[in-house]
Protein: Flavin reductase (DIM6/NTAB) family NADH-FMN oxidoreductase RutF
Organism: Actinokineospora auranticolor
Amino acid sequence: MTRTTDRLEPSGLDPALLRAAFGAFPSGVVAVAARVDGRVVGLAASSFTSVSLDPPLVSFSIATGSRTWPDLRRADHVGVTVLAAHHDGVARQLAGPADTRFAGLATVTTESGAVTLADGVAWFDTTIDRQVAAGDHTIVLLRLHAAAHVAHPLPLVFHRSGFGLRQPA
Ligand SMILES: Cc1cc2nc3c(=O)[nH]c(=O)nc-3n(C[C@H](O)[C@H](O)[C@H](O)COP(=O)(O)O)c2cc1C
């Protein structure tokens, strides 16, 4: 299918349009988490992406207003779990009230404090390599120290503000 240029006539870049256009791009969802001051802190993020094999880097973007990031950024190591298809409820929980985000979830904590979910599709043990200011978000580059993955189950997909691939309303 060819794209007609009239689709890109100046129509404004208001946040609602941007959110809808950005949401047309499907992504996975990760849990980013660590033990900091004896407490597990973290959140769900769909902005995760692989960046570099050598050196091994991944990234995610965190909203500048995040109340979790000031604690999470102090972690020695940060765990990243690629969520599985059945984790839609877990993703919502990890985006909800901070004090109950990990309630009832089976987690694994490394000696250096990286926290991953026992269940998932892939896991990374990381440290924060660099933070790049990017508008209302900060791009966080994570350096990998270990990685693992399993073939099953399928990953969770986030698309058009919901889970699974979705036709526009
Ligand atoms: C599917 C999904 C994806 C999300 N992706 C991001 C993300 O990439 N970056 C981000 O800052 N917040 C993201 N959030 C929101 C966070 O999980 C969390 O709700 C938000 O950071 C507010 O909590 P905080 O103030 O404790 O950081 C996402 C939420 C959901 C449900």
